[in-house]
Structures are given as structure tokens and as C-alpha cells.
Amino acid sequence: METKDSDTVNIIVREELPNNDNYGACNDNQPIDVNKYRSPFENRFPQDREYAEIVYDAELAIIAGDQPILSDKGTSGCYFVHGREGKIIGVFKPKDEEPYGLLNPKWTKWMHKICCPCCFGRNCLVPNQGYLSEAGASLVDSKLQLSIVPKTKVVRLSSETFNYTDIDRLKSRTKQSILQKVPALGKRFHRLGLPPKTGSFQLFVTDFKDADFWLRKFDHEDLPISTATRLQHLFERLVVLDYIIRNTDRGNDNWLIKYDPVSSRGSSGTDIEDGEWSLVDNPDISVAAIDNGLAFPFKHPDEWRAYPYHWAWLPQAKIPFSDEIKDLVLPQLSDMTFVEDLVDDLYELFKTDKGFDRRTFEKQMSVMRGQILNLTQALKDGKSPVQLVQMPVVTIERSKGMGGRGRTDSETFTQSFAHRAPFFSWC
């Protein structure tokens, strides 16, 4: 009888972690002790216990045989990951299964590359760095306290449902066969089963729908003033995030809205009598900014396409930024120390990629600094989101008197404006 890859991981954990009492929790849903649990995929999140527990829950579910499911949507490898209770708890996007990755399971991008190489990819983005962009957007969201991006970090996972090469699968089967026939030799292998993949792991949000669905409904029905105001504030947070990271792929299907209709805090199923309207809650509304993989360009779009912000056509974009968003982000964005701390945090994240290039990263940060400068000025001047995107794009390059990442007194910044416009600036 052939051993499945999940069984192999099971064997690894039991052999390498004999004292890991929490491994048995994969079958009985006991709480995970993050201080004792050792990840077979080498995931470590000592500063974020809650996130670590969710990732470990996903690992144990995979070990128990509940494999991630490939999403039908999109043009890359995107997997819904379950927890031990069988519910979806995360979305995993492997680096090598991104739109132009070597192991992308979707054929559409392969056809694009073969049939239309002249328009292949987005020339302003670093290839196959979408997983870092996803995690980077979450980092920016956290630093600015926007609270609209589901928490996302870089994670390593392995599953038989991921797209692997035939060689990797053959190696896995061979090692499993050796382990069964010659256990003493099989135990000497450094790793059994399929190799873990590096990618972004975003926490799954429930009861959300595409923004396009709700925005169309809101066009035909009036929202309570408090709910409409809340939606406007959340929309402005989305604008701040997208503009800072220069998201080139924010359509109305790439951000979500959760809308809970009006409900009574009293007994359910009874009519509301006169004088009891104080017991009624206004509809609750939330926003989630997902699909942030096409952000952090190393230059502004200046060749074929402009990649506009599609939310700029919404009526909410014509309203000047509120005092709420100004009070939230303006003090931080106006502080150069805060901005450079953000750059340093992104550096620590991006440098973990094997193809990391410092010069390219500095170009990415030059674009981001320019975006922050424009946003800061727009907030101070009381402009609207649509006026913000009409401002001349600028980059701010950092030059230092000495090498390294440490800051020095000789550190200077040079501002420059982009003069070249994309050929198709209307699309």
C-alpha cells in the first residue's frame, strides 16, 4: 500500500518531536501550546501568538489529511487552508505558483507568456514577489493602524494538493518506499515528503462579499447617515493603503464589504413599538482589502498601461478626506522617522526573498516615499481621493555618505518628478 505525503509528514513529526504533546491535538482539537509545539515546516512567530496558533492549526489539519483546496478564481495558485475543525482559516499563495511563476497551475498566464510576450507581465513590478507584496501590505496596514487588511505573513507549507514538479513527487515517493522497506535508512533522510513552499498566508474573513455587489445595492437604497459615514471612513483607509503601496490591481472585486442589516437588540421576531427605536442598532459595515500582490513597484507605470486606481471612479472618491483619516495617519506620515522605520521594517521582510536585490528595493522605497509625500500634502490641503490621484507622481531617492542600512547624519533625499506617461493612460 502506497503511503500518502500527509502520512509521511505525520511520521516526521512523531519521530523528530517525541515530546510534542500538542501533536496529538490534530485529532481531538485540543488547544495548541505554542511554547511546546514545533512546526514541521519551520514556521516561527514568537511575537504574534494569535497568528502562530492559527498557522499551527492549519499545519496540524494538513498533517491529519485535510489538504488545502485550489481556488477556481484568479490566474495563479491560491489555496484555501482549513483548520482542524474543517473551516477555512487562511488563504495561502505560494511564491512559485504566482501568475508568472514556474509552477503556476493556471494555464491562462502560460498562454499569455507564449502568445503575447511583448505585453508579458507588469514592467513596473518585481517578478514573483507577490507574496512579499501581500505581507508588506499587511505590515503597512498594521503600522498605520488602518485595520482593513487581514493579517498576512510569509509562511512555509507543504501539501499534496500544491503544484509540484514530477521530479519532486518522484523523490517523495522514492523516499517513502525506502522508509517502508528499510526504516533504518529512511530515518536518515533530512526531509521526507514534498518540500515546503514559501508563500503568503492571509487570515480568512467570513461573511464578506465583493465590494461591487454591495456598492451596486447601495446605489438603489439609502444607508443610515452613521453607516454611510463609516463606509466613507473605511473607503478612505483603503485609499491611503493603496496609494502608499501603489497597488496596481485594485478593482471592485479586490476589496470586500461586510454589511449586517439593522437589527433589534431586544427579543427577536417581535415588532418594534413606538418609543423603542433606541433598542435598534444601525447596520454594521466593515471593509477587507485583499489581493495585495501587485503592489510596491520599483517605478511608476510609464510604458504600456497606467494601472489606475479603479476606486477613483466611485462617488466616495469625490468627497474630501475626513478629519478622521487625517487624525489617524497624518501625524505619522508627516514624521520622517516614522517613514524610515516603515522602510526598515519592509527591508527586513523583503530581504528574506532569495532573489532580493538591495538596489531594486531602494527604488521601490523611493516610489513609496513619493506616494507618502503626495498623500501628506493632499491631506493637509483638504483634497479628495480623486484629486490625490491627479497629482504629479514623484519619487524620493535616499542617498547616504556611507554604505549599510544604518542611518547617518549624512543621509540625504533627492526628489524627482516622472515626466513619461504610459502609452495607454486611459485604461
From TrEMBL:
Start and end of every PI3K/PI4K catalytic domain?
65-398
CC terms in the record's Gene Ontology section: endosome; lysosomal membrane; plasma membrane; trans-Golgi network
Please give the Pfam families that the UniProt record associates with this protein: PI3_PI4_kinase
Q: Which reaction does it catalyse?
A: a 1,2-diacyl-sn-glycero-3-phospho-(1D-myo-inositol) + ATP = a 1,2-diacyl-sn-glycero-3-phospho-(1D-myo-inositol 4-phosphate) + ADP + H(+)
Q: How does it sit in the membrane?
A: Peripheral membrane protein
Compartments in which it is found = Cell membrane; Membrane
Cite the EC number. 2.7.1.67
Matches recorded under InterPro entries:
Lsb6/PI4K2, PI3/4_kinase_cat_dom
Q: Which UniProt keywords apply?
A: ATP-binding, Cell membrane, Kinase, Membrane, Nucleotide-binding, Transferase
Q: Its Gene Ontology biological processes?
A: endosome organization; Golgi organization; phosphatidylinositol phosphate biosynthetic process
Query: EC top class, in one word?
Result: transferase
One GO molecular function term? Answer: ATP binding
Q: Provide the primary localization.
A: membrane
Q: Which family does it belong to?
A: Belongs to the PI3/PI4-kinase family. Type II PI4K subfamily.
Q: What is this protein called?
A: Phosphatidylinositol 4-kinase type 2
Organism from which the protein derives: Mytilus galloprovincialis
